[in-house]
Amino acid sequence: MRHVAWANGCPGVSPGFRYNFEVTYAIRVRDVLSTSERRIFSRLSSPRKLQDFLESIPINFEQKGETNHSPENVLKTGEAHCFEAAVFAAAVLAYHGRKPLLMDFATAYDDEDHTVALFRESGLWGAISKTNHAVLRYRDAVYRTPRELALSYFHEYYMWDGRKSLRAFSKPFDVSRYAPEKWITTETSLDWLMDRISKSPYYAMAPEKALKKLRPASPIELRALKLTEWKKKV
């Protein structure tokens, strides 16, 4: 059960750069990777390159059952859904000495949640995101706070009938609280990580009064929702 609070701001994470911890954690990440994995992680040296890589691999449609693969298993299977891609991005960011931060979006009307990996450039926030549609994708680092970034997804998050469904976003979740081998190279499902994130603080996108006055998505927006990047294999 998520606890959602309304606030004008979001505590987020401290803007201070804990250099020693992040460099040490990056070394720990490198130590658990194979030579071929390190080669791939090294090549993905910027958020832009990381996003390009994630867009180059197919969507995981989970046709053989629900999965939450680790970054290592993403490389093995060559596909990823939004959560798996976000965790993979967080692992690569950690490898390069950045904080591995995740943000989850909670929805109404039985719509699906979405998870992104956060990054900072020159003090501003951006997001790495994988989706099969033309919406809810990468965000350049132009946002001053995690809340400001989260709000940029609000009008793109709607159901097939036009109802806007995004209701809350999680506090940035720092995955470096866990040992790299627990979430980067494990063969075990990361269901536990998804569960931990879902129990972290969530912040409402807007007051209930405002949410009652939302205009549905336009017909042209609904047509755009039919655009997909990858097709299911029959």
Question: Which key terms come to mind for this protein?
Answer:
single chain, alpha+beta, eight-stranded mixed beta sheet, globular
Largest sheet at a glance? 8 strands, mixed
Strand fraction: 15-25%
Structural class: alpha+beta
Helix content: 25-40%
The count of DSSP E runs of length 2 or more, i.e. the number of strands, is 8
**Poorly predicted regions:** 9-18
The succession of helices and strands, N to C, reads EHHHHHEEEEHEEHHEHH
Number of helices: 10
Number of domains: 1
Description of the structure:
The chain has 234 residues and is an alpha+beta fold. Strands 1, 2, 3, 4, 5, 6, 7 and 8 form an 8-stranded mixed sheet that branches. Helix 3 runs antiparallel to helix 5. It is globular. 36% of the residues are buried.
Task: Give a short synopsis of this structure.
This protein has about 230 residues and is of the alpha+beta class. It has helices spanning about 20-30, 35-45, 45-55, 70-75, 80-95, 145-150, 180-185, 190-200, 210, 220-225; strands at about 5, 100-105, 115-120, 125-130, 140-145, 165-170, 175, 200-205.
Any chance you could write out the topology, listing elements then pairs?
Elements: E1 4-5, H1 19-32, H2 35-43, H3 47-56, H4 71-77, H5 82-95, E2 101-107, E3 114-121, E4 124-128, E5 139-143, H6 146-151, E6 166-170, E7 173-174, H7 180-183, H8 191-198, E8 202-204, H9 208-211, H10 219-224
Parallel strand pairs: 1-8
Antiparallel strand pairs: 2-3, 2-6, 2-7, 3-4, 4-5, 6-8
Helix pairs in contact: 3-5
